[in-house]
UniProtKB/TrEMBL annotation:
Residues 6-125 form the Transcription factor NusA N-terminal domain. Keywords: Cytoplasm, RNA-binding, Transcription, Transcription antitermination, Transcription regulation, Transcription termination. This is Transcription termination/antitermination protein NusA. Belongs to the NusA family. The keyword Ligase does not apply. PANTHER family: TRANSCRIPTION TERMINATION FACTOR NUSA, TRANSCRIPTION TERMINATION_ANTITERMINATION PROTEIN NUSA. Monomer. Binds directly to the core enzyme of the DNA-dependent RNA polymerase and to nascent RNA. Participates in both transcription termination and antitermination. The lineage of its organism: Bacteria, Pseudomonadati, Bacteroidota, Flavobacteriia, Flavobacteriales. NCBIfam families: NusA. Residues 285-345 form the NusA-like second KH domain. It is found in: Cytoplasm.
């Protein structure tokens, strides 16, 4: 009875964990052999017959009959008189097969058996889970918010697998509640002890690339290729696309009529501003396109140092730099060149302009840096701007900007 009861409990694991019959039998045999080794010192002379479907199991110990008094290894040898208690016609040299009941292993051993089985099945599950998600790295995955923690959001998929979305892998504007469905890419699978930890990311460039594949049929079909993606998550992104079919406009196909195709991606990424750029092998043209929406006058490239001087009219400089310097930073990452903005065509009244750094004794360095981020690094470049616009484009208070304007005006009045 004890054999049947134990096997029935093993069958529960098969049903719960969806382990195939061959794997379950291999795990069961391994567990029983470990128990036999502990009890008898070796399992070499044991036959284990398991049928989990029917709920039965047999363990047989095989021993060689030796003359009375000559038993050296009680596990592999049996005396003639003991053998004849099993079958009266046994002779020396013959093999005796005797069934071993689980109860003979002892109750502690049976409890250890069950615990070992649970451990082995969990190990099997974890190995399968690790392999399953290892193959999904770089793919979009959807899971439901189970718990929101300060440093991570814990997600659970339809199969009950736990997925971790760390705080640093979330878009700054992300806000999740229990029960929300969350999309991201499987970025990594790490083994923590024997348990795999599945890491999701929404800030990866790969996530944006995969969204293009998912949302834009021509990208999915391979008619349009995503050459490179660079992002400042939640703020701005630039995506270079190309097509080998001259009849297809890759940028137009990705953006869609009135932005219809790109809109879903922008919304998914917390209204991240996405510039889609037509890739070209012409470096000058590529840099010009990468600095969109600014209109570039000319580009001077230094191939040796992987840098370029970009010449722009004064009114285009702030567009090229972008809010917080995001536009020029991403353009540099996209093209692989360090970009230096050069103003051209200064107006006559700007000939006596003064670099903002000359005012470092009156204006704090971090304030000067804030202006530089949006391409304003001279006195007149700031004085030519509207104060309200400066408040909107920088992280400076209006009071601070007005004080800077006062200092700069005094310079030119003097």
């Amino acid at each position: 009875m004890e054999n049947i009861a134990l096997i029935e409990s093993f069958s529960e694991f098969k049903d719960d964990k969806l382990i195939d019959r061959v794997t379950l039998m291999a795990i069961l045999e391994d567990v029983f052999r470990n128990a036999l080794k502990k009890k008898y010192g070796s399992d070499d002379n044991f036959d284990i017959i398991i049928n989990p479907d029917k709920g039965d199991m047999e363990i047989w110990r095989n021993r060689v009959v030796v003359a009375d008094g000559e038993v050296e290894d009680p596990n592999s040898e049996i005396s003639l008189s003991e053998a004849r208690k099993i079958e009266p016609d046994f002779e020396v040299g013959e093999e005796v097969s005797e069934e071993v009941k689980l109860i003979q292993l002892g109750r502690r051993a049976i409890l250890a058996l069950r615990q070992n089985l649970i451990s082995k099945i969990h190990e099997h599950d974890n190995t399968n889970l690790y392999k399953q998600f290892k193959d999904l790295i770089g793919d979009i995955y959807t899971a439901e918010v189970h718990h929101v923690r300060p440093k991570a959001v814990i997600l659970v998929d339809d199969e009950g697998n736990e997925i971790v979305l760390p705080k640093e892998k979330q878009i700054p504007s992300d806000f999740f509640r229990k029960g929300d469905n969350v999309r991201g890419i499987i970025e990594n699978v790490e083994l923590k002890g024997n348990k795999p930890q599945i890491i999701m990311s929404r800030t990866s460039e790969k996530f944006l690339e995969k969204l293009f594949e998912q949302e834009i049929p021509e990208v999915f079909d391979g008619l349009i290729t995503v050459k490179k993606v660079v992002r400042i998550p939640g703020e701005k992104a630039k995506v270079a696309v190309d097509s080998y079919d001259d009849r297809i406009d890759p940028v137009g196909a990705c953006v869609g009529m009135k932005g219809s195709r790109i809109h879903g991606i922008v919304r998914e990424l917390g209204n991240e501003n996405i510039d889609v750029i037509n890739y070209t092998a012409n470096t000058q043209l590529y840099i010009t396109r990468a600095l969109s929406p600014a209109k570039v006058s000319s580009v001077k490239i230094d191939e040796e140092n992987k840098s370029a001087e970009v010449f722009l009219k004064l009114e285009e400089v702030s567009k090229a730099i972008g809010r917080g310097g995001h536009n020029i930073k991403l353009a540099g990452q996209l093209t692989g060149y360090e970009l230096d903005v050069i103003r051209e065509g200064n107006a006559p009244e700007e000939e006596d302009d003064v670099e903002l750094t000359e005012f470092s004794d009156e204006i704090e360095g971090w304030v000067i840096e804030e202006f530089a981020k949006i391409g304003l690094d001279t006195a007149r470049s700031i004085l030519n701007q509207d104060v309200a616009d400066l408040v909107r484009r920088t992280d400076l208070e209006e009071e601070t900007i007005l004080e800077v304007v006062r200092i700069l005006k005094e310079e030119f009045e003097d």
